[in-house]
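Entry for the shared binder. Reason: the reviewer on the internal report wants the predicted structure included alongside the sequence.
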Amino acid sequence: MPSALETLVKILKLEREQGYKNNAVIGGLGEYSALWADQARTQARRPEHLMLIDELVDLMIRYESVSEKGGRGDSIEYMLARITGRIPPPEPYRSRHYDAPFPSRSEPRPERAPANAAPAASQAQRDRRKQRAAQPSADAGQSERDARKKKKSREADRASQKVKPSDDGGRMTPDDDFSRMDMEFRGGRGSAPVSDIPAPVKLARPPRKPRTSINPEEAADVLRGLHASVETIKDVGPKRAEQLKRLNIFTINDLLFFLPRRYDDYTQLKYISKLTANEQATVIGTVRHTEVRIGQSGRRDFYIRIDDGSAQIGVMFFGQWYLQNKIRLGQQIVVYGKTSTYRGRVHMANPEWEPLDVDDLKRVGIVPVYPLTEGLNGRELRRLIKRTVDYWAERLPDYVPEATLERTDLADLGWTIRNLHFPESWDHLHHARRRFVFDQLLLLQLAILGNRRTWQSLPTDALHIDDDTLVELLRALFPYELTNAQRRAIEDIRRDISQTVPMNRLLQGDVGSGKTAVAIAALAIAFINGKQAALMAPTGILAEQHYRSISRTLAALPVEHKPVVALLTSALSSGEREAVRSGLAEGSIDIVIGTHALIQEGVDFRDLALAIIDEQHRFGVEQRGTLRGKGKNPHLLVMTATPIPRTLALTIYADLDLSIIDEMPPGREPVRTRVIQPHHREKAYGLIEDQIKAGHQAFIVYPLVEASDTIEAESAVEAFERLKGVFYHHRVGLLHGRMKPAEKDAVMAAFRDHDFDILVTTSVAEVGVDIPNATVILIEGANRFGLAQLHQFRGRVGRGGHPSICLLVNDAGDDIPDRLRALEATHDGFKLAEIDWQLRGSGDLIGTRQSGQPVLRLLEAVSPELVEMAQREAQTIFYEDPLLEREDHALLNQRVALLRDERSDLS
């Protein structure tokens, strides 16, 4: 006879064919569940099988109360998927413990009522149900005929899946059936069952509908509708609108582009028993244990254990003791985070979490997970976005020209929005993300290219120098041989500034590659042409450092009247600042080195022709524009010591021409780099002690300024107090970003002058600090920093010609992150930038471009191929129609204008 599961599959398929009327068996699925459960339990071999039976019985009992429109269909598909093993167990039925010895096949099995079942029926009721179930329904005969017709097809399917027919006419025996299920529960390799759920469709190219023409008035109406308040959406009243505002959702357009922060695929979940360290994972399970623990410095942490039937995992929420009122014993929850090891066991720390929504389990697909706010849960927000997307996806006018989409094989905008929120498969989501990221890159490129065109339409003064004079100048300024990369950069600058079109160039060079020498050459050319020049640095200590080196170098110019170089920072007295301002206004000061003080009101130049900005990522476009405004549209050179992959730099800085110094001056010894574990910290302290006794200095860097409630790591302030005791024979200083600028400059000046032997600091010491006597840098929690940032830290030592070392303390457990391995292996900042892009995406490389505003969303999806594609298409569009005046560019023009409105740094 067929197994219980095979019988139920037939009934469920019949119910689907009959339109979910609940009449596949007499009395409906709820009545039939008791009879089916008796048969199924006699065939079960393991506790997991009983869990599945209980789950299916519960669903059959509730089936009658489910809506016929959609709800019942989802329920049937979910049950079929659970039987075939396509969906792993959600474990909502583990609340009953199956700890007693499992009875043998010959022993009577105790009755197990489903968790949500109605009170137990009397024996008379049970007999009546069995009698009714034994009678065929009106459609039972047809069902049997259909079953016979499909028998051969089913057997062929089984054969193709290598399921060996048994002796009972080709059916699997109950033991075979549950053995197959057992393999599914264990995640092993067994005979794959025939699934009723089609495999996800692979899209070589996303579908694209023929574009219908839309006149400007219709487009304007649609755009007005998109920018209407969310309160115009059905069921969104003032209270809901206020909640959405806290998520920065004000309009319908905001809601459409409010993207999920992640997606949960309940068909692809991993069991806890299969988890390994250092992987992003979603876990669904039941809370088995909760407690509040007292952590470091009296901090109260909340600890739970989650059980999914295969194993348990510990989850720690540092400092979040209040979750004890939200996460309860026996509650089913979803947690998402990165796994790590603690005392040899896999666990999670501070994951995202939310209560399990059983409706999501029934979707049998990819579920979007959005950022939330108090009073708005995930289910409510998903329903609201689903209604909005369903209405607007097909009404959105596509602003990207059809020819562009054809060349790039990208999807329509409406299709993209639909699949960004509710993807049909991961392949659909991949194509949707490609289109979304491409749009951002394209619009950004067009906006920046437009700005460049506007700015360069205003002429400036050309600065000339002949070949012989340049050679003589460089020989006098630099008693050493410049590298070929430095000479190429100087030639790029010379060519640019000899034009009346203003230079707008980015100079990229690794730590110690000699960017300052290139800048000095540019300043000298401006001086020889009788013009003023300015260099702006982000900190007073860096400005003072440049002032000393530039003044000393320019004093060697082979001219009778040496240039007058001044320093302008907030640390000067009011009288000193006024004297510098007067000198700049009347022209007696030729070159000024300063901080933000240069762009303040009251600072005017007589004839500014060249502006240089160091560590340009610390300044926004608005600040660069203000400095340009101090002269007659002067030439602009911006410099950075943070290497960015060339492809990415050409996108984020499309308004800048690019020069790269990709070689180091001869004789510079690389800084030795080693990754160490926390238990080797004392040896590191011993190395620091030896270097201090030899007359050198050391940096000790921490990821936090002060103790955090959510991150288990020592802070700089805590460590400072402890290290003063460890190095009690030496002078220890403290520097962090919460100090006032004047305080930070004073500490750095004291460290430079060797008033401190050790500087305890944070990321504030990342760039621009020149301490030639420093030979050791110890970076605590190095795994918490990005690769580019670690490379910058390493550049703080080895600047004085002494052998130096960088020690990276890895507190992520026994596994050493790939980026720390990469830092050990190479000292080339540009190679490291490429590795960083491959390992972590472009987010850590781009960050924010200016004004603290995000450049791009879905940064992790930015790839070199997409960047190059967007560059090519933007340049094609721009050179064909720079003002975007053509009819097929009208909507694109509106989107570029909207981008400028959204981001003031592009205006």
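Summary line for the report: The CA atoms of residues 59 and 824 lie 56 Å apart.
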